[in-house]
Write a structure and sequence with these properties.
The chain has 292 residues and is an all-alpha fold. The chain has two domains: 162 residues, UbiA prenyltransferase (Tetracycline Repressor, domain 2, Orthogonal Bundle), CATH 1.10.357.140; 128 residues.
């Protein structure tokens, strides 16, 4: 029963984490377009995106279900639909099941079995293994769990090629290395929330100064990782230039946070990291299109 003024459909939409889905869409579309030289079959493009997104949405709903207890202890998540009683856990389970089944049908019927298998394995890893266990086992949880969030470009590429291409794995690597500095910036800002909820995020376990050093180090590693597609001839000079500029911008915010004793710039770093990833994949697409 919805006990708030929010329309019920909005609560169901929130369960799928639409903000995360937006980044998934960008990276997945990039994988599809790059993997097909901007000529993916229309049915594969549409149903591939929808199928992958539906299964990712199902994983997000399960994340809400499992995390409802700790969400209630954190200011950032205390108003989520299950926590505030707008949607029951049973209703959320039905919703997650339907999303997974519909998404799976789209991928198997209109795309290919390999993409469905990889998407399902990602679903299992994030929704059950990471959310239920890995998140609480180590302060390096987001480093390990980042693999799930890094899969969309590979899934998009596989949807149009029905193979696992080495170049697609480079895109996975970039997103995987991007995830820790992106999420640790938020964790620095919300460190008290995570401590209260008993989630062993890096700033909770090792302290904020230690985390800020690692944000800088991972940002440097990210810049190096973004050079690899150029090094193997996957992209040309336009991508290289934009990747360097964006990387230096990320490094600026990371160093600024490292020097900020108040941690007030943590959300600036977090916000920039989101724009960074979207712009980086945008640069890949423009470069690929120009040099076709």
């Amino acid at each position: 029963m919805n006990n708030t003024d929010t329309p019920l459909w909005r609560d169901y939409l929130e369960l799928t984490k639409p903000g995360v889905q937006a980044l998934l869409f960008v990276s997945c579309i990039s994988g599809m377009l790059i993997g097909s030289n901007f000529s993916p079959p229309v049915s594969v493009f549409i149903f591939g995106l929808l199928g992958i997104s539906f299964i990712a949405g199902s994983a997000a709903v399960i994340n809400h279900i499992f995390d409802s207890d700790i969400d209630a202890k954190m200011d950032r998540t205390a108003s989520r639909p299950i926590v505030k009683g707008a949607i029951s856990q049973n209703s959320a389970i039905v919703f997650a099941t339907l999303l997974y089944l519909i998404g799976s049908a789209m991928l198997v019927v209109y795309v290919n079995t390999l993409t469905w298998i990889l998407t399902s394995l990602t679903f299992i890893f994030y929704a059950f293994i990471y959310t239920r266990y890995l998140k609480f086992m180590t302060s390096q949880n987001i480093v390990i769990g980042g693999l799930a969030g890094a899969m969309p470009p590979l899934l998009g590429w596989t949807a149009v090629s029905n193979t696992i291409e080495p170049n697609a794995l480079l895109l996975v690597l970039i997103v995987m290395v991007w995830t820790p500095p992106h999420f640790w910036a938020l964790a620095v800002y919300r460190v008290e929330d995570y401590a209260e909820a008993g989630v062993p995020m890096l700033p909770v376990q090792r302290g904020v100064p230690f985390t800020k050093i690692h944000i800088v180090l991972y940002t440097v590693l990210l810049i190096a990782s973004t050079m690899l597609p150029y090094a193997v001839g996957m992209f040309q000079e336009l991508y290289l230039f934009v990747a360097l500029i964006l990387g230096l911008g990320f490094l600026y915010f990371s160093v600024k946070l490292y020097r900020d004793d108040t941690n007030a710039s943590a959300m600036q770093t977090f916000a920039y990291s989101i724009s960074y990833l979207a712009a980086l994949f945008g640069a890949m697409l423009v470069d690929q299109y120009i040099y076709l």
